[in-house]
Hints:
The protein is α/β, with parallel strands linked by helices. The chain has helices at about 15-25, 45-50, 60-75, 115-120, 130-145, 150-170, 185-205; strands at about 1-10, 30-35, 80-85, 90-100, 105, 125, 180.
Amino acid sequence: MLVIGIAGGSGSGKTTVVNAITSQLKEKVVVIPQDSYYNDSSHLPMEERQKINFDHPDAIDWDLLCDQLSQLKQGKSIEQPIYSYITCSRSKTETVTVKPAEVIIVEGILIFTCKKLRKQLDIKIFVDADDDDRLMRIITRDNLERGRNVEAVVDHYSKTVKPMHLQFIEPSKRYADIIIPQGGHNKVAIDIISATIEKTLHEEAKQL
Length: 208
């Protein structure tokens, strides 16, 4: 089993990289998104929930994420939480059953900020992209998926996303084993990473 962490700023192209690797390795991969592990805020009024800084490490339930990753590494299935950006809360009744796989990808902007989680990762990849490119992707994504208009997205970016990126995410790049420039558009880097994963799995299989 190989556990890979894929981090990078919001809008850097992490999902594109994850999807590219997953499409090449297919059923060998399971993806654990950091976004599923935001702290449950259902006990707070909606007005308070909307003030939560989702780009700060304190917004993540690291203990649950690390515990469930540990269970997967032990060959056990987990019940992954479901988090909604619309309600800013975790579902009380629904979860997603995730079964172990040969490759586990943990993906999220803040995953390298948690020392406990970093220790569980075999390969750490940071997806890098220019700030302007990231902002354009964030505007498109938040408009389509989170119902925010352009003005609201730009305001949120300048007040929260950018300062948190500079304080927490950009510095976490130093923990990466591999840095992918040009975000998810770097097909050469993605192909090399996929080939490396395949080679590692093949070598592990020979040792069994």
